[in-house]
Amino acid sequence: MESTLDTVLVALSPEVTDETADRLLEAAMRAAGPADATVVLTYVLTGEEFLDAAERLGHPNAGRDDADEVLADHEDVERLGATLDEAGIEYVVDGAVGTVAEEVVAAAGERDADQVFVSGRPRSPTGKAVFGSTAQDIILDSPCPVTYVAATSE
Questions:
Q1: Residue 32: which domain range?
Q2: Disulfide-capable partner of 95 in 36, 68, 74, 81 (CB 3.0 to 4.6 Å)?
Q3: Is 3 exposed, middle or buried (0-12, 13-18, 19+ CB in 10 A)?
Q4: 112-131, pLDDT tens digit by residue?
């Protein structure tokens, strides 16, 4: 049985450093490029972060329904989009407001993603038990395979 790769989702948030975002994108491009798949840059902000970003990016009256448009103007998304443009890989931006794990899993389902790329920072077993893990929640709840890309040490 032949499997195809049409849609690859990259999970992003303010917690993801530039270096880690670059590593996530490189991994996603290695999968998406040869398959001629579309990369979905899914950038998730909390409500307060979204309002701040909307104001800063020149969208002062933006609401949740405008998240795609607002976050397409975000400097991190523009930088990653330029890398995808240079590589000739098609991409779209999914902006979301809420919790990262819930929004990424929802976007993967809505986009019928074939693969999700996510990162996370190293945590102790106690830290995982007490605070949970966004990457773990995405891995467990995703409707498709998830590739974990380790975050860079800071």
A1: 7-133
A2: 68
A3: exposed
A4: 999 999 997 666 665 555 44
